[in-house]
Amino acid sequence: MKICVPPPSATLPRRALLAAGASLAGTLAMPGLLRAQTRELVVGGAASHKPWMDATVIPFFERKYNCRITYEGTRSLVNLEKMQTNRSRPYLSVVQMDDPVMILAARENLLERLTPERVPNLNALKPGTIHMDGMWANYLQPWQGIAYNTRALPNGIASWAELWEPRFKGRVVLPSLQNTEGLANLFVAASLETGKPPAEAQADADAGFRKLRALKPNLLTIYTQMPQAFNLLEQGEAWAIAGALSSFALERKAQGAPIALAAPQEGIYASPSGICAVRGGPNQELAMAYVNEMLGAELQAKLAGPTFSLPTNTGLPVPADMPQVPVHSIDWANVAAQRNAWVQRWDREMAL
Amino acid sequence: MTKRVDLFALSALPAVLYLLVIYAVPLLMLLTRSVTGAEGLTLAPYTAFLSDAFNWQIIANTLRVAGLVTLTCLVIGYPVAFALSWARGLAQAVLLLSIILPLSVGVVVKAFAWQIVLKRDGVVTAALMATGLFEEPPRLLFTETGLVLGAANVFLPFMILPIYSVAKLVDPRLTEAGATLGATPWKRFARITWPLTLPGVISGIAFTFSLSVSMYVIPSLLIGDRFQTLATLTGRSFLLMRNEALGSATAVLLLALAVAVVVGSTWFARRLGRAA
């Protein structure tokens, strides 16, 4: 048997080769290690969420995962536009937006499915908060009522129907149907017009439009920018904003603005805040970890108070200061199917 | 001489390239998108848009507001431009600064400021009530009047500065000569000053009209969602309705209308100038 002994001269190059290989591997691995140290997650969301994102979510997550989060605050539809435009090379990893816009994103195949294996906290969510077989989930549930100026209306507002009273002439502000929070008013109006329960009245948009047309003399404006509307309310130019979100209105109240949020006797509307991972987005594992944290009890406990919202994690109790009136849900699938037609109709029927 | 001309032409090349890439190419893409359907070339987005009576109302809104803003700017800006050209020293510096400085303030900030000025207990309403002509405070905010006032404030420098650049070149001896020949102040203005300043007026109208016909943020903040213009509809078509064909068609229509009105008014003003 012939034993092949490498020539002495060959030993050194092999060692050198191994050393060089190890060095090369280390070099090649280094950028990865560096990247691991400076991992970045770009999260899209609502501009109005920036204060609590900066104060609570970002420091919490950055500290826990040794990464950096860049938050891009804008409108949900702009986030959708960003996802669509950058479909081939997404730069957003996670997006927090409203359910009706999530439906559009899911239909355009822009979302990465969330699974309990990658997002264990999905198992801890309330029923009805995971949508389209895990395309997105709700991390909080703010509610919608009527924000009002406490100087102009010291006795508050007891019913949605009061907005139609002549004393409100030119003092009511509504969100546009372009804004997600604008849709509740259509269903409130349909319910008032028909006398049907809110869930049933959602199918009768005609009645809703009919009733909303009757509100035109009382309208000051219809907004697309929420801060502008609250500016009007706080200055006393507007007396009421119908369909105002608790996450914005109660935060302004807590900051000392002369406003309050009424929970009318007919009930309030839940306006779920959704979170999704972007299909093919950078740092997928980190993105899933972020989604998981947002659905977890620890972070939701920190957020429910400052955002004046209901947590969706079953491990947390309903806040004690939640209004004791019925909470209605909106059929977002119906909204997604009808919204364009409704917006066109809204433009025509609510025009000056 | 030829070489110098060529060098001059070459010096414009960076600007031409920049405009081609930043402006002409996207514009061409927009135009292409507006005439492209699922089955190739089509004019369907235009016919669909123009066959709806409500959309003609949107076009009328756009042109009416732009026209009123331009007119307001001209009425206010023309005498200011002359005051600026007549002023000397510190007075001229202060005037120029007061016209140019507001350009550094963002449109959103200005629009919010107008919201405060126009509200029911704001200074404009207080002044109107002081005239005794109104029984109750008139509503200006979220009305067309409020929009025109606010937009005119934002675009006024674009009317004043072109007129000023021409007005300062007008020889005051010409009107003096007219006066010595017995021309009334109105006749001196109509026959001497106005024709001489017409190039500046035309430029001012072109600037102001182009800006106001396509304004998007100002109507959004000062009149809200109840008053549609071509610009707001274009934004909404892309962002909300996800209807690129409609958005491209309305954008092209907006551009065509703006160009037509600017070119038309220029031609008309020049004819008037020649006639004068």
From TrEMBL, chain A:
GO molecular function terms noted in the UniProt entry: thiamine binding; thiamine pyrophosphate binding
GO biological process, one term: thiamine transport
Keyword Signal: yes
GO cellular component term, pick one: outer membrane-bounded periplasmic space
Pfam family, one: SBP_bac_6
Residue ranges of coiled coil: none
Protein name: Putative spermidine/putrescine transport system substrate-binding protein
SUPFAM superfamilies reported in the protein's UniProt record: Periplasmic binding protein-like II (SSF53850)
Keyword check for Signal: yes
Keyword terms, alphabetized: Signal
TrEMBL record, chain B:
Stored InterPro entries: MetI-like, MetI-like_sf
SUPFAM superfamilies per the UniProt record, alphabetical: MetI-like (SSF161098)
Subcellular locations according to the entry: Cell membrane
TM segment ranges: 7-31, 65-87, 94-117, 147-167, 196-218, 245-269
Domain ABC transmembrane type-1 span(s) in chain numbering: 59-263
GO CC, any one term: plasma membrane
Pfam families named among the record's database cross-references: BPD_transp_1 (PF00528)
UniProt xrefs under Gene3D superfamilies: MetI-like (1.10.3720.10)
Listed name of the protein: Putative spermidine/putrescine transport system permease protein
Lineage, broadest ranks: Bacteria, Pseudomonadati, Pseudomonadota, Alphaproteobacteria, Acetobacterales
